[in-house]
């Protein structure tokens, strides 16, 4: 795929809003994951310099020795957003998984959803190396979870999965999973990297994202104390940091022992500043941004449907994934979209089923009508070329 797909490992020479230039080729950016468009927000960018003036560019202590005050501010704001008692911030969600999952599972069992994000799979491998038993299940068939938990060894049991699946926007049945886990004495660990900042409380047909952006647990109306909730801040809040929710002081003391928080580099000051400002903006006008995000997502989904393509999911989450087929077909479709001026993410095995690869397009609240129009034209060109190829094959 690296040799055949033009979108792979390319150098962006400049960016103007949601348009990028790669090798003098201008493309509408439907590949970045900046759901609220805060990466280029003037208020967010202006917030960075004052904090850098106060704290320098890099708080170079380990948090075990000295933890700058902005961490505590960020953790408090994240607790307010998620409706939880407290949170603990890590440098990244991958480091969080690697440090925390072995601690939670100890010498017991980690039951991982088979299509959970690769960062969870890597952390599961790390946990196995410490003596943790690792099993798999399929969230679309909860009998597989029941079987895995029944077969799990004695000791702590942790079920790990995504809150929103990144290739489709699908949500797993977290309430049913929590019920089953509790029956077997297991904890449920949810990675909501894509849900935070997009979905929130009280969804309706007219407003399927709900309000507040507090994440998938709030979206489903579930009790946060039933879950170990984890998320990153890169998708909606355009910042390098991640966090885990805490239900009591004992959990904080336990999880602060994770090697990936004690021995990793700290979160850069610029990222602490942009995360804090992003959360302030979410409080002030986040629902406005989400309304625009829903508008652009529905627009692109209508274009895809009208062009005759299958979408991998009918959710209105701002990931629109066209099902194309085998790898060779995905490569060809990727080239057509590249030539038509669209940057997107090919979804191929193992991120997608072997013969159901596709083209993933992610939306932001800052996409303009003109950029959407260019994307529409590219999709119509792809549909026309695909139809012509199919007709040619049938005649031969």
Task: Walk me through this protein's architecture.
The strands form 3 sheets. A 7-stranded mixed β-sheet has the order 4-10-9-8-7-5-6, with helices on both faces. Strands 1-2-3-13 form a 4-stranded mixed β-sheet. It is globular. The chain is built from 12 helices and 15 strands. The model has no long low-confidence stretch (mean pLDDT 94). The longest helix is centred in the C-terminal third of the chain and has 38 residues. With 396 residues, it is α/β, with parallel strands linked by helices.
Task: Give a short summary of the structure.
With 396 residues, the protein is α/β, with parallel strands linked by helices. Helix content is 42%, strand content 17%.
Number of strands: 15
Q: Give me the Rg, rounded.
A: 22 Å
> Biggest β-sheet: count, sense, barrel?
7 strands, mixed
Cα-to-Cα separation, first versus last residue: 28 Å
Query: What is the ordering of alpha helices and beta strands?
Result: EEEHHEHEHEHEHEHEEHHHEEHEEEH
Helix percentage range: 40-55%
Pick out the low-confidence regions. Answer: none
Strand order of the largest sheet: 4-10-9-8-7-5-6
User: Which outline best applies?
Assistant: globular
Note the total helix count: 12
How much of the residues is beta strand, in percent? 15-25%
The averaged pLDDT comes out at 94
Secondary structure category: alpha/beta
